[in-house]
Amino acid sequence: MSFFSGIRTENMPGPICGDPCRCLCEKVCLQTNKVFDACLKQQHLEDITVTLTDFDPPAPTAPLTFISGQTSTTESITFTSVTINRLADRPNFARVSVTALIPLEIVYIDANDVEGTAKGYITVDESVILFVPQPSMVPVKIEPVGSAIVPHAVFTSDTEILLDCCLLLIIKVVAEVEILVPSYGYCNIPPCQDATEDVCAGFFELPLFPISQPTPIVTATTI
Question: Would you kindly state where each structural domain of the chain is located, as residue ranges?
C-alpha cells in the first residue's frame, strides 16, 4: 500500500471530501521558509561563450562534438550578488537586482567516439520588481530556482563552446519563520505494498512520531 493505493484513512494526504474542519485536532508551530513573493523569467540566450572544465574522462581527443547540455545535477543555481532598492512610491516593494550563476553539464563525443562530460557556467543579470517585507530580526533572503537546456552548441576550441541556452529562472523572496497552522495530527503511513514477509513483527512497538498530550482547554459556559 501507499498514500494513494489500498485503503485510505482520514490521516493520509490527498483530496478533502466533505467538511475540511472535520478531524482538526491541534494548532502546530512549523519552522519553514515562507515565500513572500516570487516571479518566473523565461528567456532564450544566444551565442554565449562558455569555458569548460572538469572533463570526464580527462584529456579527451580533439575535435569534440556537442551532444547535449543542461543544468548540472550536482550544483544548484546561485546568486553571486543581490541588490534590493526599495521603491519610494510603492511601500513594501523593491527593485531586486541579481546576478545568477547557472552551472551547466555538457555531454560530448571526442574524436575517438568516446562520450564524456564537462562543466561550465554562464552568468545572467536580472532586475525585477518584487514584494519585500520591511526589515526584521529574521532576515529576508532572495533565492533562485531554475533550470537550463542547451539545444545547440559548437566547440570553438578544446575547452570553449559557443552555445544557445533556454533558461527558466524563478526569483523568490523568502524568510525562515515559525508559522502556526491547523493540523489533522500525524500522518498515517501504511506499509509498503511489496512487503512479503513480516520477519520483524514485535520489534518496533514504539509509535512512529512522538505523542504530545496538551492540557485540554476548558471553556467557561454562561448560564
Answer: 44-180
